[in-house]
Design a protein that fits this description.
There is one protein chain. The chain is an alpha+beta fold. The chain is 36% helix and 26% strand. α2 packs parallel to α3, α4 (156-164) packs across α6 (181-196) and α7 (200-208) packs antiparallel against α10 (281-295).
């Protein structure tokens, strides 16, 4: 039985609900538009890096589909009305420059956008790719026996707050017995570079190593995004996360403060985090080896895809972090 373009369009639109990107059928057979949008408030002091991070964050949704090339970007910008005119002009110019430079690094371009005024500065955008239906990886085909790979460490929310506390004596006093300024600056610099790092190489290697499904880890934390990915799968499965790679020193801060960010529970928000990918164990090991060879940044096997066919009910697909997960303290580096 043949399927009309209209039927395909309706199927794709329904299928894309809950994904990181929208999938829209175009008027051309087997050609789709993959699109995503995101924006957020500043989380680093440097407006140039804020622009780079915002661009990387937008593109990561495309990268989670194994899409290496973005055909077009739009920028969304809010200039702060709480700043002086000089501050507003300076910060907005640098955010725009950072976003544009990162888009160029990604092999894309910014062709337009929208600018408004707002009490808080905001930066983000829209990323679009036009592809054939067989040129991207739908995030639905994880199979029992797969493993889960993560391409960036966790802990950016803790690290950003850690750095902000340098200017808040009442907060810093609560942690100054277990850390120091030099340690704070080192991990914050690493976190900033990590957030600005594109997941583009990971997207390319997803295709090479036959990834079955993926998402990017951002505002809902590793547990929130892995749960959403599990619920999108066609087979009855469960994700079990046994390892948490965390930026060095973030665990001791969490422990000392009685876990305010719920980092070890997997619900601490991440910004422009890594790709979480389901693939065979053999391919995962090769993936981790090659991404390190190319980018000099590690990736980790952090979990397993478990069969739940004995209770065939996809609505029960979920993700859990096992009790007492292995913690990897990720050393800061400057290999960016």
């Amino acid at each position: 039985m043949s399927i009309s373009i209209k039927d395909k369009k309706e199927e794709l639109l329904c299928e894309g609900i809950g994904y990181d990107c929208s999938i829209s059928q175009t008027k051309f057979p087997d050609i789709v538009m993959i699109q995503t949008t995101d924006f957020f408030f500043p989380l680093v002091d440097d407006p140039y890096f804020q622009g780079k991070i915002a661009c990387a964050n937008v593109l990561s949704d495309l990268y989670s589909f194994g899409i290496e090339d973005c055909d077009n970007m739009l920028m969304l910008l809010a200039c702060s009305t709480d700043m002086t005119a000089e501050q507003r002009q300076w910060s907005s110019k640098l955010m725009i420059q950072g976003f544009n430079d990162q888009a160029i690094c990604a092999g894309s371009k910014v062709s337009g956008g929208q600018t408004v005024k707002n009490p808080w500065p905001i930066v983000g955008g829209v990323a679009t790719s036009i592809l054939k239906t067989n040129e991207f990886i739908k995030p639905v085909n994880a199979i029992p026996g797969d493993v889960l790979v993560l391409t960036k460490p966790l802990g950016t929310q803790v690290c950003v707050n850690f750095h902000q506390w340098l200017s808040k004596p009442e907060r810093w006093e609560k942690i100054n017995t277990i850390t120091n300024v030099e340690e704070c600056e080192e991990v914050f610099n690493y976190a900033t570079l990590s957030m600005a790092r594109l997941n583009r190489v990971g997207a390319r290697l997803m295709k090479k190593y036959n990834a079955h499904a993926a998402t990017d880890v951002t505002g809902f934390g590793i547990l929130g995004h892995s749960t959403n990915l599990a619920q999108n799968q066609l087979l009855p499965i469960r994700f079990e996360i046994h390892t948490l790679p965390i930026i060095k020193h973030m665990k001791k801060l969490e422990d000392h403060l009685n876990h305010p960010f719920k980092l070890l529970k997997g619900t601490s928000a991440e910004t422009s985090g890594g790709l979480l990918i389901s693939m065979s164990r053999e391919n995962a090991e090769a993936f981790c080896k090659e991404i390190y060879e190319i980018e000099k940044q590690p990736a980790w096997i952090i979990g397993d895809v478990i069969d739940q066919s004995s209770n065939y009910d996809r609505s029960k697909n979920t993700s859990i972090i096992l009790e007492n997960p292995k913690i990897i303290e990720v050393e800061p580096n400057t290999n960016f």
